[in-house]
Structures are given as structure tokens and as C-alpha cells.
Amino acid sequence: MILEIRDVGKYFDGYCALHNVSIPVEEGKIHAIIGPNGAGKTTLFNLVSGISDLTQGEIFYREKRMNDMKPHLRTELGIGRTFQIVRLYQSMTVLENVMVGSHCRTYTGLLKTFFHFSLKEMKEEKQIRENALRWLEFVGMAPKAGQMAVSLPHAEQRLVEIARALSMEPDLLLLDEPAAGMNPKETMDLDALIVKINRMGKTVLLIEHNMELVMGISEVISVLNFGEKIVEGTPAEVQENPAVIEAYLGKKKRN
């Protein structure tokens, strides 16, 4: 397993956001996490990426325990992430936004990426720029590399954010509702992009409300409801499970 989430719990001032959630993520798979709004999906991503601290349980990446590990160290291990709400630097160009993603793996660091202090750093900046352009080409955004990020439509900003996450060279990519706000054509293109990323050998852990996309590309699906995992299996198994149907219809509530 590339990622193991073991008996994880998260409480906020007495409110239980997650309770005893265990999810094994097999390397090389597209694994989706679904559930109604408020089920705890993004909270789980925040725990995996280190943005939030665990209340209970353990998280392992390639058998390395990450409970007390800072977010940038998790990135260095090989975990990349996008967010439910796009987080681009609006005052930077598309290219500069993607270049920022490489800083955690370089000598120069974030600030020195944009300021020349030595020949070594200048060479590294060139490599960072070339790497960023490569990933922009991969997601189809290279022609807009020089544009300001704020000028892009929503769907294109999401592609830039994916390129930035890929520029970190992750083995595990967390995608938090990447299709949110996209029209059917944009969603279809995203579907193909996620499959393309996976075929490069990267494991994809996906949160998504678009069930057509989830059922079409996922190999394993974990379902959360009221902070607990209720079902895990293949798309066919999940789609026909009575507990999943009840959760989405809002018929079943935990006391």
C-alpha cells in the first residue's frame, strides 16, 4: 500500500468530523472517496496532507508514520494535492504559479526561484522553469503560461493547480473535487487527464461529487457518511450497495 489510513478520528470542539476511518490505498490505482456534503472527505485530505492534526489514529505513507510530520515534509516524500477551492497566486503568471510547486525539491527554495543570487541558482531556476513548462504542456495550458492566473476561467485555473501539484513530482496525487464548476465538456477532458496521470504510474486519490466521472475512472471507492466509512469496493459494488443508496437519499442518520 502506498497510503494507509488507520482508525483515524478528528474532533473539532466536541464535534466528530471523522470516527475510526480506515482506508488502504493501493499503489497505482485511482481510488475515489465519495459521500454527501459534510461526510468528512476534505477533513480526511487535510489530515493526510498535514494541514490538520489527527485526534486519533495513524497515517502511513510507504510504511512511514506521518502523524507528526509537517506538510512540506509530506510533499518531499511524494504527496501532492489540489484543493476544493482553487488556490493560485493571483498576482503571478500561470508559469510562475507552477514554478512555485517545485521549490520544495530544490536548493534555491521558493523566494530564490525569482531572484538571481548565484550561477548555481540561475541554473536551477532554468530547470524549474523548464519543468513547469513541461507540466503546463501536459495539462494543455502551455499557450497561456505568460498570462496572469487571475485572468483565467475557473476550469483552466484548476488545470494550472493540477500542473503545480504535478511539478512537485508526487507519487500520490490528492485531487479534491477537481470537476467542481466544470461543464460537461470540461469534465470529460478532466476525466481523460486523470486517467493520463494515472497511466504515468501515479496513484490518484480523488474526492468528487460527479458520479459519472467517479464510476467511470475509479478502481476502488470508499464511501463516507457522517464521518464514518460505510462501504468500500469496486464501482459496481458501491453503486448497488443499500447503505450507499440510503446515504445519498438522506434516509439514514446516525444518532
What does this structure look like?
By secondary structure, the protein is of the alpha/beta class. It is 38% helix and 23% strand. It is built from ten helices and ten strands. The chain has helices at 41-49, 71-77, 94-100, 109-112, 119-139, 154-167, 184-199, 211-217, 235-239, 242-249; strands at residues 3-12, 15-25, 30-34, 56-61, 64-65, 79-81, 172-176, 203-207, 220-225, 228-233. The protein is globular and about 55 Å long. The mean pLDDT is 89.
How many helices does DSSP assign?
Answer: 10
Percent in strands: 15-25%
Number of strands: 10
Instruction: Give the strand order, joined by hyphens, for the main sheet.
Output: 6-7-8-3-9-10
- Kindly report the oligomeric state of this protein: single chain
Helix content, binned percent: 25-40%
Poorly predicted spans: none
Name the average pLDDT. 89
Short descriptors:
255 residues; alpha/beta; six-stranded mixed beta sheet; four-stranded antiparallel beta sheet; 10 helices; 10 strands
Please specify the SSE layout and strand pairing.
Elements: E1 3-12, E2 15-25, E3 30-34, H1 41-49, E4 56-61, E5 64-65, H2 71-77, E6 79-81, H3 94-100, H4 109-112, H5 119-139, H6 154-167, E7 172-176, H7 184-199, E8 203-207, H8 211-217, E9 220-225, E10 228-233, H9 235-239, H10 242-249
Parallel strand pairs: 3-8, 3-9, 6-7, 7-8
Antiparallel strand pairs: 1-2, 1-4, 4-5, 9-10
Helix pairs in contact: 3-5, 3-6, 5-6
